[in-house]
# Entry
Amino acid sequence: MDFEKKYRITQFPGETVKAMWTRGYQVVEIYYHDTLILTHKGVNKLRDGIKYQTKELGEIALKLSAKPITLDIIIDGYHCVNNVSHPAKELKSMSTFFWVITVFAIISSLLDGIHLSFDLSLGSLITLINLSVVAVYIVSAVNTNKSKPWAFYLGLSMFGFWTLISLLSLVSGNIFIIMVFLIRVAFLVFLIKNIKYAVATAKHHKFDSGGNRTSEDLLDSKI
# Structure
């Protein structure tokens, strides 16, 4: 075997499995307590993922992550802690999206302030609302970066609420407003599709506090 790596089992803290594989992942062996529990041959099925039933650990799924290319191991539905494609890592990446939304919210707030500068009382109220929205997005971005599912749900709820409210502006028939609304809908669909990472992260956090997940990866990108 050309490479080996230890994977930390989420539901059994302190326990690990060891994967050994040849270059190109043509042959993969999984060891538990230094005992060989499964052998997989061929790389093609690893791209989509393949499952094995073992008496030692139940169902074990093997799958190659996309970027970087390396082997992920999922035991009884739980990603090993240092998997590259661990749901908590995928959720963490969503923080960038909330930062983008924050920037747009700040720009929108500035435009509202300029537009309503003639009415001090109304302008102050709108500014307060806008600042509250921006604050929520910042909280969501910061805590989603820490793999906190509640932060993702908070940002999603706020964005979904204002997307629904923006429906009222469509009555103007302004083409720019319609385009902005369609962009918001596209963003919302993207967020909804990624709810799965928040759900899976919460599931994994029952066993794992979501702390350090250094990947300790050995990569073979020559497939």
About this structure: Strands lie at 3-8, 16-21, 27-32, 35-41, 50-54, 58-64, 71-75, 78-79. The chain has two domains: 3-84, 95-193.
